[in-house]
Design a protein that fits this description.
The chain is of the alpha+beta class. Helices cover about 45% and strands about 20% of the residues.
């Protein structure tokens, strides 16, 4: 998508005046203006996209329409991201901040059935361009109905579900709830763009309540970092630093932990003409209170340095950043 197109989508959301979609008779032999900058007409927003024409016209039309719909959705997502950043404060915990910021990425998962094909244009150089539209008033009503339909699925886990359950079971029960909460919040943010108000008057308070309940559980989980190979104390500090910087951390003794994050590393050292190179692979396993592996990830990083130790530390630092990001993402269903 071109920069001009992206700006056009944002512009259509903020425009105070309406610009009609040009008709075929106004642009015979010329590139229509909507190819570069889709416009807004009343409650209707537009997106445009193109695809190379080939022998399969239907496939070309389908690709172009998908590109136009993606263009429209990108504008909505960028606008939501901008608004979300203004609402999230540094006082929020790491998990809470990331959860709020990740909701905008779920906008693409919300089905907007009212996207309509408005126009097409074939360029002289063999590209097919498509203009699609979305009636935001009609879409807002559908979002409200979908929100109401999903409301029972975001109820708190019942006492019978949690009675006698271990920490992992309670954690996953709340993750199921928060999956629905994230979808509901994405609907709410789209509804705010379309209608200028929350999808339901009680939703902001309910959303904050569910988020606080979940993050309280997550923040209360204690982790022990188990490095299975001899990385040394200094390197252990490198591995834990990104976690500490994000407000996370590890307990000192495994007996004090709820879960254990078990790391194993494999490295390949190579002598270069002017230094050293280390190719480091780190595997991570999350072991719950019952000794079962519940989560796994791995990363591979390269380090360069004047000595093998410096090269290793560089690779460890990059790998640690990967691991903490993967872990926090896993906490946001």
């Amino acid at each position: 998508m071109s920069a001009a197109t992206a700006l056009g989508v944002l512009g259509l959301l903020a425009a105070c005046t309406s610009t009609p979609v040009p008709s075929d008779t106004e642009r015979v032999g010329e590139r229509p203006s909507w190819v570069v900058q889709p416009t807004r007409s009343g409650p209707v927003v537009y997106g445009s996209g193109g695809s190379p024409l080939d022998d399969n016209l239907a496939a070309s039309q389908s690709r172009a329409r998908q590109a136009a719909t993606a263009d429209l959705m990108t504008g909505l997502r960028v606008r939501i991201m901008a608004e979300t950043r203004s609402e999230v404060t540094e006082a929020d915990g790491a998990v809470s901040r990331l959860y709020s910021q990740s909701v905008s990425s779920r906008v693409d998962d919300i089905e907007l059935d009212d996207v309509q094909l408005e126009d097409t244009w074939e360029s002289p150089d063999g590209f097919l361009y498509v203009l699609v539209s979305l009636d935001t008033a009609r879409a807002a009503e559908r979002l409200r109905q979908a929100w109401r339909d999903d409301l029972p699925a975001m109820a708190e886990p019942t006492a019978s579900e949690l009675d006698g359950a271990g920490l992992w079971a309670r954690f996953t029960a709340w993750q199921r709830v928060m999956t629905v909460v994230g979808r509901q919040q994405a609907r709410d943010q789209l509804h705010r763009l379309f209608a200028g108000r929350a999808v339901d008057p009680d939703w902001p308070e309910l959303y904050q309540s569910r988020r606080q309940q979940y993050t309280a559980i997550v923040d209360d989980i204690s982790l022990y970092l188990d490095t299975r190979d001899a990385t040394g104390q200094d390197n252990r500090t490198v591995l834990t630093a990104p976690w500490t910087e994000r407000g996370l951390g590890f307990v000192d003794q495994p007996a004090a932990a709820d879960w254990t994050l078990r790391l194993s590393t494999r490295r390949e050292n190579r002598q270069l003409e002017h230094g050293h190179q280390v190719l480091l692979t780190v595997n991570a396993e999350l072991v719950d209170e019952l000794g079962q592996i519940r989560w796994q990830t791995s990363t591979q990083r390269r380090g360069l340095g004047g000595s093998s130790d410096r090269a290793l530390r560089q690779a460890l630092n990059s790998a640690a950043e990967d691991l903490v990001t993967a872990w926090i993402n896993s906490l946001n269903p």
